[in-house]
Amino acid sequence: MPAFFKKKTWRAFAYHWAMLFLAPFGFTYAILTISLGASLLVTVIGLSVAAAMLMGARSWGRLQRALTGSLLDRHVDAPPRLVRRPGFMGFIRSGLGDASGWRALAHMLAGFATTLVASLLSITFLVAGLGCLTYWYWVQWLPLMQAKDGSWHRGTSIGSDIYAEGPTWNLVYAAVGVLFTFLLWPAINNGLASLQGSLASGLLGPTEAQLRVKSLEERRSHTVQDADARLAQIEHDLHDGTQAQLVAIAMKLGDARDRLAGEDIPENIKALLAGAQGTATDALNDLRGLASGIRPAVINDGLDTALESLVAAAPMPVSLTYSLASRPSPAIEAIAYFCAAELLNNAAKHSSGTRVTLKVATAGHGKQLVLSVLDDGVGGVDPAAGSGIEGLRARAANVDGTLEISSPRGGPTEITLRLPLS
């Protein structure tokens, strides 16, 4: 089937028309961003406006990727999502440092020029081809023109005193129309659309560096998940294997003591049995504490249940508020639980307070878990003083989480943990 009749060709033509409509808006947005940013650069307001407009340029990228995918059948991967830093200055740094926003801005400028060329060439070749094909019909409405010899002609003028009229010229125009319409136009139309798609892929997709970072993040995520799964398996094996065996040993030793209680045996043998039973009981208690430290089995019932158990065993009054709509991934639950346990333990040991408030909620459009521990103590927490804060911060960083501390002298102290839900 000739390319003229294929859907691909006409979708590419529709893409040219869509870009011809959208490109002026993108070009205007890019010029405004540059001019406003340059004119107000010396002020904080100018920086914030430029940052906001660069973030907004990402919407152009989403629109262009959707157009490229639906009309050109060319999938363009989205760049990594923008991670906004907290605070006003963090907002400015995030916007101005957003490489994807700058690349979208570059696409607005470059795309304007390529769209004008591509759209006008495609439309011109199609209109010229169809015009030549139908020349035999519409030539009758052309105005009469007088040659130098005084004769009158109805047809297009080709050179000096040469007029395209009559059956021969109609056939010539028809042949040119076939060449333009069915051969040249599809090739030019599709080729220029492919060029536009390449421009979108090059500027609106992820860079090689971003792809490498994404790959590293995925591998790290799998490593964290695998580690959590292994810890859960170890806890399960200790609970159902070694712990059960120690329970059986302690019970058998107790049964032996009971049976030999009335027998005439040396006291050192009885003391040996009592000591063995006590050692088995101590080992069982140590093993339970070890298994709980690896990964408490209560986490399997959900983070809410695990935190309720933690709060109930806390050495000081703790108020718990839990408002997660969905359950986090197992690795995130484990990190949140251990951080909460460490923070509650620190509050009990160092805050000199009387009450702690533990809150768990979502943020970031429901994609982030926020756990905060607030005590009414004396404040002045120093992360470098061996309180374990830096270890918690490193654990959160393993999954792109953060740990923020607000602890002025005199209190109160609030420590906020932010983790992705998955």
TrEMBL record:
Pfam families from the UniProt entry: HisKA_3 (PF07730), Sensor (PF13796)
Annotated ranges, domain Putative sensor: 20-204
InterPro entries: HATPase_C_sf, Put_sensor_dom, Sensor_HK_TwoCompSys, Sig_transdc_His_kin_sub3_dim/P
Nucleus keyword on record: no
Protein name (Swiss-Prot/TrEMBL): histidine kinase
SUPFAM superfamilies according to UniProt: ATPase domain of HSP90 chaperone/DNA topoisomerase II/histidine kinase
Signal transduction histidine kinase subgroup 3 dimerisation and phosphoacceptor domain span: 233-297
Molecular function as annotated in GO: kinase activity
Keyword list, A-Z: ATP-binding, Kinase, Membrane, Nucleotide-binding, Phosphoprotein, Transferase, Transmembrane, Transmembrane helix, Two-component regulatory system
Gene3D superfamilies: 1.20.5.1930, Histidine kinase-like ATPase, C-terminal domain
Catalytic activity field: ATP + protein L-histidine = ADP + protein N-phospho-L-histidine
EC number(s) recorded for this UniProt protein: 2.7.13.3
Membrane-spanning residues: 12-32, 38-57, 109-138, 171-188
Domain of life where this protein originates: Bacteria
